[in-house]
């Protein structure tokens, strides 16, 4: 063996070393895959024999429930957004009504004097 290693170049020795490491890794991988397959078989034997049709039916029921939940969620979000929009509009309307009432009161005061005569008019040159 030492005679062979002396005849090989350093690069050849490194390549053989890498191949040896690769072979060991593949062997460990093979053992792991076999263990996984064995445990999968044992699990399958121990579990109830459920057909693909039964699993598919359960998945359809779950899908229907998820769709219903999604629809209800979207409706709730839409309702919440409309509620906020209505509250915002009511706040703006009440503030504009309040402002409008104040402006009307001010106009009434400006347009009528103490004796009720109309002596001040908005938009006129003289007050």
TrEMBL record:
Keywords: Cell cycle, Cell division, Centromere, Chromosome, Chromosome partition, Coiled coil, Cytoplasm, Cytoskeleton, Kinetochore, Microtubule, Mitosis, Nucleus. It holds the Pfam family DASH_Dad3. Belongs to the DASH complex DAD3 family. Residues 26-53 form a coiled coil. This is DASH complex subunit DAD3. Residues 98-111 have a biased composition (Low complexity). It is found in: Chromosome, Centromere, Kinetochore; Cytoplasm, Cytoskeleton, Spindle; Nucleus. GO terms for biological process: attachment of spindle microtubules to kinetochore; cell division. Residues 98-117 are annotated as: Disordered. One of its GO terms (cellular component) is microtubule. GO terms for molecular function: microtubule plus-end binding. The keyword Cell division applies. It comes from Arxiozyma heterogenica.
């Amino acid at each position: 063996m030492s005679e062979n290693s002396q005849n090989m170049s350093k690069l050849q020795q490194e390549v053989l070393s890498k191949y040896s490491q690769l072979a060991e890794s593949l062997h460990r991988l093979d053992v792991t895959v076999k263990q996984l397959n064995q445990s999968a078989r044992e699990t399958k034997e121990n579990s109830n024999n459920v057909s693909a049709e039964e699993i598919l039916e359960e998945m359809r029921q779950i899908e229907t429930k998820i769709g219903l939940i999604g629809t209800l969620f979207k409706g709730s979000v839409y309702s919440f957004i409309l509620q906020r929009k209505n509250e915002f509009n009511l706040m703006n309307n009440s503030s504009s009504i309040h402002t409008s009432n104040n402006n009307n009161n001010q106009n009434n005061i400006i347009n009528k004097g103490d004796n009720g005569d109309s002596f001040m008019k908005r938009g006129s040159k003289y007050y």
